[in-house]
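[recover] target loaded
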């Protein structure tokens, strides 16, 4: 199970316990995107030593998108769309950096 945090390029976390936190820490330490659906609680909302840096809005995400990952009162479909938009923006930002190399 420890390998899961070492192989992905983008991670989306939903709730979770110590295992999710461990995977997120490994992924975040490698510098890959961790998108925590914070509204679900548990590790994804900072428990179990979840990496605090992963709870911070990345530059390519809008304030509204990041807010929808946190808000318990937001419609689920809007939060899901925000997750997809953050992932898409990350991929776009990565492609731009790669093209510039």
């Amino acid at each position: 199970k420890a390998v899961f945090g070492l192989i992905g390029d983008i991670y989306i976390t939903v709730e979770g316990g110590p295992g999710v936190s461990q995977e997120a820490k490994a992924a975040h330490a490698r510098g890959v995107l961790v998108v925590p659906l914070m509204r679900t609680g548990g590790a994804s909302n900072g428990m179990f030593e979840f990496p605090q840096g992963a709870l911070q809005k990345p530059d390519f995400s809008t304030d509204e998108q990041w807010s929808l990952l946190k808000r318990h009162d937001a419609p689920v479909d809007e939060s899901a769309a925000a997750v997809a938009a953050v992932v898409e923006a990350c991929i776009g930002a990565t492609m731009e950096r790669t093209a510039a190399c």
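[recover] notes: The longest helix spans residues 76-100.
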